Amino acid sequence: MSEDMTAFPLRLEGENAPMVRFMNVSKSYGELTVLDQLNLDVEPGEMMTIIGPSGSGKTTVLRMLMTLETINKGVIYVDGEPLTHMVKNGVLVPANKVHFRRMRAKIGMCFQHFNLFPHMTALQNCMEGPVQVLGLTKESARQRAEELLEMVGMSDKRDHHPSRLSGGQQQRVAIARALAMRPKVMLFDEVTSALDPEVINEVTGVIRKLVGEHHLTMMMVTHQMGFARDISDRVCFFYGGKIEEQGAPTDLFGSPKKQRTKQFLSAVK
Ligand code: ADP
């Protein structure tokens, strides 16, 4: 049965509109339901962290925002507009590539594997998108890239190629590169999992700084509970493609209410 799209607004408006909304979103691969009628709002400027066991759907949430996955049901909105759909003749219809491309520009992402352009220096990595995609002049792209490399503590390495940088340094450049595109929402997917323990703090320090100084909306998936507790405004515990429990980090980590949350937290400690 096809879905009744009239249940979904064409836009989210007003001062209380969230920056990101998952509205009744379901996703399955064959028989496997990965997200089960998920409803999730992220407020402008909020740092929202997703935790949960492997396979609970955490990465799928981020992949959907990056338009790397289609959805089976529901609608995702970003910055007031539908992401998964577009408005045609006054109704919501599935988005096409052009719509996806326009909406994707609102979203910056950093992954476990940083995927910097290997043939470009740190500075060039941060200038490429703004020049090629946003159409900035080289001068203004360079100025912005230099500011961002400064912010992530990589100014002195700006002329180095990725192969000459450590994992932590590459990840910091990757964060600067994503920010150079001026996204509305930043996604961090396990950004510290591929790093050696001694450089993890370099990267978490940069993310901490972003939380403190920028009014960006951020969503993060992490296995580092201490870090999640430290920097998040809200933590969502995912289980079986649903939010099992959510709340302020002090509440969720300090006094979890659901049995599954308690079990998960005691197992990862
Ligand atoms: P998490 O990030 O919480 O570990 P994921 O969102 O990566 O979980 O995956 C949720 C579930 O979806 C897992 O059971 C995974 O095996 C399954 N899955 C993810 N991508 C695919 C795919 N392309 N095809 C089939 N199953 C997939």
TL;DR of this structure?
The protein is 35% helix and 25% strand. The chain has helices at 58-65, 97-104, 122-132, 138-151, 167-180, 197-213, 225-231, 249-254, 259-268, and strands at 20-29, 32-42, 47-51, 73-78, 81-82, 85-88, 91-94, 107-110, 185-189, 217-221, 234-239, 242-247. The protein is globular, with a radius of gyration of 19 Å.
Structure overview:
The structure is a single chain. The protein has a single domain (17-121, 162-265), classed as P-loop containing nucleotide triphosphate hydrolases (Rossmann fold). It has nine helices and twelve strands. The N and C termini lie far apart (44 Å). The protein has helices spanning 58-65, 97-104, 122-132, 138-151, 167-180, 197-213, 225-231, 249-254, 259-268; strands spanning 20-29, 32-42, 47-51, 73-78, 81-82, 85-88, 91-94, 107-110, 185-189, 217-221, 234-239, 242-247. The model has no long low-confidence stretch (mean pLDDT 92). Strand 4 (73-78) and strand 5 form a beta hairpin. The strands form three sheets. The protein has a six-stranded mixed sheet with strand order 8-9-10-3-11-12, with helices on both faces. A four-stranded antiparallel sheet has the order 2-1-4-5, covered by helices on one side. The structure holds adenosine-5'-diphosphate. Keywords: Amino-acid transport, ATP-binding, Cell membrane, Membrane, Nucleotide-binding, Transport. One of its GO terms (molecular function) is ABC-type amino acid transporter activity.
